[in-house]
Amino acid sequence: MAKLEVEFPEVIDVARLSAECMALAAAHAGRPDDIKAALLPVLKAASKDGRANARRILETEGGGLDCARRISYLQDCLIAILNDITINHVYPAARGQIAITAVGGYGRGTLAPGSDIDLLFLLPPKAADMTHKAVEFVLYLLWDMGFKVGHSVRSVEECIRQSIADMTIRTAILETRFICGEESLAEELASRFDKEIVVNTGPEFIAAKLAERDERHRKAGDTRYVVEPNVKEGKGGLRDLHTLFWISKYYYRISDSAELVRLGVLSRQEWRLFQKADDFLWAVRCHMHFLTGKAEERLSFDIQREIAELLGYNSRPGLSNVERFMKHYFLVAKDVGDLTRIFCAALEDQQAKDTPGLTGVISRFARRKRKIAGTVDFVEDHGRITLANPDVFKRDPVNIIRLFHIAGLNGLEFHPDALKRVTRSLSLIDQDVRESEEANRLFLSILTSKREPALILRRMNEAGVLGRFIPEFRKIVSMMQFNMYHHYTVDEHLIRSVEQLSRIDKGLGGDTFPLSVKLIETIEDRTALYVAVLIHDIAKGRQEDHSIAGAKVARKLCPRFGLSPKQTELVAWLIQEHLTMSMTAQTRDLHDRKAITDFAEKVQSLDRLNMLLILTVCDICAVGPGVWNGWKGQLLRTLYYETELLLSGGFSQVSRKERAEAAQQALYDALSDWSQKDRRKYSRLHYQPYLLSVPLEDQVRHAQFIRDSDKERKTLATSVRTHSFHAVTEITVLSPDHPRLLSVIAGACAFAGANIVGAQVFTTSDGRALDTILINREYPEDEDEMRRAATIGRMIEEVLAGTKRLPEVIASRTRGKRPKNRAFPVTPGVSISNTLSNKFTVIEIECLDRPGLLAEITAALADLLLDIQSAHITTFGEKVIDTFYVTDLTGEKINSENRQAAITNRLRSVMAGDHDALRPGAPRHSGGNLSNAGSGGR
């Protein structure tokens, strides 16, 4: 067997295994199938034991790179043993005809536990059939052992020819590592590849690899700060380090990336950072593969906590162990970005010296610089800002901030050399710079720019400047929130919030945010709004409530930025209340005047209301894709208009009874083409809450729907329509009323795969329920969505009619499905208040969401003889907050402490899953309102 370059005897006793396998092969000489059968269990056991040893060492000693090297060594041993058996006992004629080499990551001598085995079999130009059979024998045994083997069988000449046109093949050959067999073939390939392919093609290779990297980042969303990152392919992941390795090896003609220090490309400290990042990412990746038993590259919520524990992270005040682990992960991903910038800067510098006449993609390396108006410290190099001389930052550290200001002002990209020098000059940003009036003026100009403030802020953050200039911001850089609601780290969320504000400020998104785009024109203090949006979550990760702590940070930071005392207090108030409008809109009955008056008392002025609405919209939109929808926008607009009316003194002083009577008359008048009898009958069907909260247009449509159902003698009926702007579909249900109706409808929607985002639930004066259910839209085309909604409507009718039994149909849908949110601990909570409404008792529950919850809660409330007047369903990822406005069956609040305790206990048991209510099937919450306003109980 070939002598392996690096040995890890703690993983496998290669001498003993080789001797055992050789003996087995000799015992079945001449019978290839029998040799396979004899070897397979022995080799599989060795592979399993070797991986178990590597895992044990990883968990006890750490060292991700060493783990990957141990597994690579193990694989080398198995392949070398197979090759020896093949050429000695199965196909001896193939001796000297095959070189087995590793390519890809395996070619670098690293292998993750679940990764594919990439092999290149090198053969002579005209290899005999027996040689090809020998290759097949090795491959079939590897496949039978359970490995996924990516392989190619080529001659040296074929490798050279194909690598000319195919950059993927060229990269694979670049990483070729000899394992066993005829070494001269591998040496010939290496020699010819270097002389015939690599020489003078460095710029071409670099351009291809960087373009490949950029496309990979684009597909992944071009951010390293997603909370479930791809450790291999994501931005700041292992593939980015591999790209640096490929380019180093190809362009600098080196075999060990440590030589980059000798070449002056990286400093010794940066090289150590490279090694630390590589080792950490490999440790995470190996743990992922071991835990999942497969080549899992996405660091999902399900395994983050386990990996945090395996890596030894402990919880600290304000941050759990998994949040500390993920913060470290994102800081490492940021380090990878820093190294990439430094490396690319060195490449450009070297290529500019070596190949000044290049054109095309590499023409940017030519040194043609132009002056930038208003500065002598910076110049433009092909659309990118760079330093006029090396001591620009040392001479005046405020120039670090000025660099970004000028880039934003002139719409320039950043030269890698400029960013490299920024990264190496961060220590110059000291307290004097932070307190500098000029530095703070420049920063506010960047933040409030009419161009692309978020882009510049992101570059500042990636370069480490934002955290150095604002130490409070540094604490939330790369901070992850361990939940399913937030898609990004806290710093990325804040920058995306500014990005959304900038879009609104430019008048963009009027179709999606019509009110915000209108109100931004009335904002006089743009600076205060931009500052509030940038730092509204700056106190995340502290023990104190982040809104209250954030207001304290604002009172410290704003004067430093140059804001007046009045502006400072406005920013502090906006931060302290930045969740209030969203929570009120989504969890309170907006037709209950107490909810509006309580909110108005907090806001107090129209200016604050306008700014708070815009901040709320930016905050929600920056949480992640799909979090904002038209339904949430409608809730916020409703709250805004109701509060604006009250703050401006225009809140109606006409009594509720008078307004209801006027609405009833308006409905009567709108049915002018009906008979007098029908006009009287259908305009008198509804109670005050319906008449006061449902638009006249919808009242007329409902009246037509009810009359048509009556003519057809339908006791159960549904109708559907779509709302493309709100991204919801509406299903209206007419049914005899009964206490569990909400629960039954919710379960029927669940079976049909529909997520309820809201509903209006009313009782008519003749004892029927008129329920309008809003579900998430699924299809872009109305025709497809109408067909889906009609199917759901029929399902609701069948369940209500009793032709289908809900528990069985739901069980068939949910059977065998694992909940996605099992990794998240949410402490169940129940609160009961008689002060949030003048007429109703308000019950609020908070717990981990799950299939069946909405149906189970509403069924439990019905069992408790409570009349649900309205309900508001809000989901934040894995956590649900449901608010129910209830009375007892006589219409009174629940004042008895004993009864309140009984309600609390019952709801806690439902949330814990210990109950006899409807079993799995109600829809997972996706946010919205259910409002029932009538005399019948639900």
From TrEMBL:
Organism equals Allorhizobium borbori
**Protein's name according to its UniProt entry:** Bifunctional uridylyltransferase/uridylyl-removing enzyme
Could you tell me the EC number(s) of this protein? 2.7.7.59, 3.1.4.-
Q: Please give the catalytic activity noted in the UniProt record.
A: [protein-PII]-uridylyl-L-tyrosine + H2O = [protein-PII]-L-tyrosine + UMP + H(+); [protein-PII]-L-tyrosine + UTP = [protein-PII]-uridylyl-L-tyrosine + diphosphate
* One BP annotation, GO: regulation of nitrogen utilization
Q: Which InterPro entries match?
A: ACT-like_dom_sf (IPR045865), ACT_dom (IPR002912), HD/PDEase_dom (IPR003607), HD_domain (IPR006674), NT_sf (IPR043519), PII_UdlTrfase/GS_AdlTrfase (IPR013546), Polymerase_NTP_transf_dom (IPR002934), UTase/UR (IPR010043)
* Family matches, as Gene3D superfamilies: 3.30.70.260, Beta Polymerase, domain 2 (3.30.460.10), cca-adding enzyme, domain 2 (1.10.3090.10)
Instruction: Give this protein's Gene Ontology molecular function annotations.
Output: [protein-PII] uridylyltransferase activity; phosphoric diester hydrolase activity
